[in-house]
Amino acid sequence: MEKRGVGEQPAIALEGVTKTYWNGAEPVHALRGATVRVARGEALALMGPSGCGKTTLLNLMGGLDVPTAGQVWVAGHSLAAMGEKDLTLFRRRHVGIIFQFFHLLPTLTVWENVALPLHLNGQPAMKVEAQVSELLDRVHLGHRARQKAYQLSGGEMQRVALARALANDPQIVLADEPTGNLDSQVGLEVLALLLDLCRQRGKTLVLATHSAEVGARADRIVRLRDGMIENPDAA
Ligand SMILES: Nc1ncnc2c1ncn2[C@@H]1O[C@H](COP(=O)(O)OP(=O)(O)O)[C@@H](O)[C@H]1O
Ligand SMILES: [Mg+2]
């Protein structure tokens, strides 16, 4: 794995990133030369209209997709230099992801959903036990641990997803419209919890949102339009 020297390096750096999808013979330019750097421990909001490239940018940061051109660095690692296997391990250890539609396993319990990434990382039972119970307490769901995920409200599901994203103590947390499917009041409560958890634990957070109210609570806003950064001085 290629690794930069430690020091002032950002937690995440996208350098001149382009992403082109193909719709048959038609190119779709999802990103056109985006440069974004995110400092360690920062909470960055990615904003812009639907289709501007927010999800694509998050997917590249999380190593879920590869750029057509340009470089992606996360925690000093060049993702392009990693093979599929390394990338999978890297994601499991260093990246926590939260989605708009929660993506819980509905027939597993709350406890099992949060424990799953810890089991995948081969953590010993005692560590799993301690970590899951601490996180469920933190998201105020200790009392729902034995319930099946499908029995929860949307706000509760997203709180389980927050706990799951943090289970492996990742350095970076990516959240794609985490409040997009929640009532605005519930969404703001979930957002407050997400920001608190990330700030207390020194996590680097990047969240995509349509909502100006949500964006305003981040440390910084980067605006995308048609796959380009609108405010490059802030990126
Ligand atoms: N897998 C894909 N295949 C083809 N086009 C895609 C794919 N994913 C995204 N796009 C296109 O790329 C552009 C950016 O999409 P996306 O990153 O999802 O934007 P946002 O999250 O801001 O709504 C859109 O035009 C979208 O239709
Ligand atoms: Mg999106």
SSE map:
Layout lengths: L11 E12 L2 E13 L4 E5 L6 H8 L7 E6 L2 E2 L5 H11 E4 L11 H11 L4 H14 L15 H13 L5 E5 L7 H17 L3 E6 L2 H4 L4 E6 L2 E2 L6
Parallel strand pairs: 3-8, 3-9, 6-7, 7-8
Antiparallel strand pairs: 1-2, 1-4, 4-5, 9-10
Helix pairs in contact: 3-4, 3-5, 4-5, 5-6
Sequence stretches where pLDDT stays below 50 over 5 or more residues: none
How would you describe the oligomerization state of the chains in this entry? single chain
For the biggest β-sheet, the strand order reads 6-7-8-3-9-10
Shape: globular
CATH homology superfamily name: P-loop containing nucleotide triphosphate hydrolases
* Small-molecule components bound: adenosine-5'-diphosphate, magnesium ion
Approximately what portion of the residues adopt beta-strand conformation?
25-35%
Order of helices and strands, N to C? EEEHEEHEHHHEHEHEE
Gyration radius, in Å: 18 Å
Helix content: 25-40%
> Helix count, per DSSP?
7
Q: How many angstroms does the end-to-end distance come to?
A: 26 Å
Q: Estimate the mean pLDDT confidence.
A: 94
The assigned CATH architecture is 3-Layer(aba) Sandwich
In terms of structural class, how would the helical and strand content be classed?
A: alpha/beta
The CATH first-level class comes to Alpha Beta
- Major beta sheet, specifics? 6 strands, mixed
If you consult CATH, what is the topology? Rossmann fold
